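Just scan my protein:

——
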Amino acid sequence: MAEQNEKQIKENLQIIHNKIQAACNKSGRDINTVKLMAVSKFHPAESVISAINAGQILFGENRVQEAFAKFSEINKKFKTELHIIGQLQSNKVRDAVKIAECIQSVDRIELLNEIEKQCTRFEKNIKILFEIHTAEDSKSGFDDINDIRECLKKFSENKYPHITPAGFMTMAPFTKDEALIRKSFTTARNISQILQNEFSRFNLAELSMGMSGDYEIAIEEGSTLVRIGTAIFGERDYK
């Protein structure tokens, strides 16, 4: 599936909304409990604008440099909500903070320190999600629930006044084995529930999991935000 035109993007979004509705019906959930993020990595600004024209507001980008260049221009004309969802290097935090409303890929306490530093510098508040490592073929994410606990304790001590912890994110393994995919999602959901109960002063209800190939399973397992790229925009242009 090549890069899609505006009509195709609108049709793709409708198909995905219908599938989200079906997955919610199957799980006894309200569709309003699941947000759709359009992942626009490697897709041109024109495709993003086509999605905006079809009613899509929430977008995700993996690469900060690309996101900054693309959305700095898009946001001059349109109102969007941008999340950074890829592994984030400390030297990219400044631009991430400037362009995004949320960083979903927080996987170490050092990154929180740098996010707070840059938020203070630019007088900006930002949301974050803790990335949970649940797939062997992924290198990012917290491996140990205790490391996330230590981060949340620092939030309890008001060490990060410009950052709002909002929940958790994970990536399932790249496989067609539904049992392995489901195990990844249930692991993340269980960890999120444990930490929500322990740190009830914070609203940690966001659970970002599920992509183009597995989002229906993710919804069945409790995802509140699915990250869809190819099924909306077509194959990415890697040039």
Notes: The radius of gyration is 17 Å. The first strand starts at residue 35 and ends at 39. The longest helix spans residues 6-27. The chain has a mean pLDDT of 95.
